[in-house]
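Translate sequence into structure tokens.
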Amino acid sequence: MTESDNPSRPADGNQIAYDGSQIQILEARESIRRRPGMYIGSIGERGLHQLVYEVVGYAVDEHVAGHADAIDVTITADGGMRVADNGRGLPVEPEESTGRSAVELVLTELSFGSGPRSRHHVSGGLSGLGMCVVNALSDRLSVEVRRDGFRWTQEYERGVALAPLTRHEATTGHGTTIVFRPDAGIFETTRYSFATLTERLRELAFLNAGLAVSLTDERPERPVRFRHEDGLRKFVTHLNPYPVAPVHSPAIGFASESGDGTVRAQVALQWNTGPRQEIRTFANSTRTLEGGAHEEGFLTSLTAVLNDHARRQRLLPADDGEPARELTAEEVRGGLVAVVSVTLADPVFEGSTRSRLRNAEAGDCVRDAVREHLDDWLERHPGEAAAIIRHIVNTATG
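Result follows.
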């Protein structure tokens, strides 16, 4: 074998050492700042707004767990963001092995808080990593916690704590306020869109009934407040095409939980006389643009339930001597506006964009919910049920 034939040596004869010293192990902050797109999708406007959604996602988790009913989001006069909630407040006790506060670990460690979780501890952000990511990608961040009878604060610069968590005066309040300013050295733009934030926050209010969400723009002040007790049905009404011409009113809405309590499904739907259709699906309040198991479970069960009801009530035409026709999934979608939302502890998504949900248990929960609740609704509303079947048939044959 000649020297040039040796695969461990380059052809020019200059040996390049490859050993453990060449393997870089990046700390969480350094890894995030070096490759921000891996954590928030982009360094453009989409990634900029994702920072807000990550912090808001923590507050939504507090609402899902039954500890918060209000989130106030503010675009500050200097172009930063302030997100305040009235939940329990981030934990402040020191971690035994490091002596650092739990607040600091949440804001600096990617692995903090991992472990078994129930449906009541879900994450609408990056699997619970979002607070650390936001901190690392902000040139300044401050946290204020009202918990355990006191007010606590801490400040960071580009993800590095400037001082330990500090205890202040006594208070009877509770909750967390995060103020941050995106790092202009990382993002292509640091200007937030009021319209973009309005759309997403309104969506979160629809998906989380009873949660009051406000947005204020101090550039100048322009407050908006959302709260929807009948969230998903109001969401469908909001999505309906204009002019509104519903086949039945109001929208149908129901919720159900899996037998083991790990998945909760909410569904709302309404047919309109026009051909336009829209089905929006969400997992832990995050839009799943490519659907997934929950959407498949919805459409499969929806088609089966409608066909079963139509056969029992003899609502489908049939030729002499021939069985009644079957509605197809595509026909059922004609004029349908629907929202399907699931919450679960450990969502599994396909692709880095988190656009398709894979969890089979989510599909099972939605399918069972539609079978039970929609079948019952059709039986209790025979006139509206017949109108829906006629609309589907006419739209398909028209």
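Note: DSSP finds eleven helices and 16 strands in the chain.
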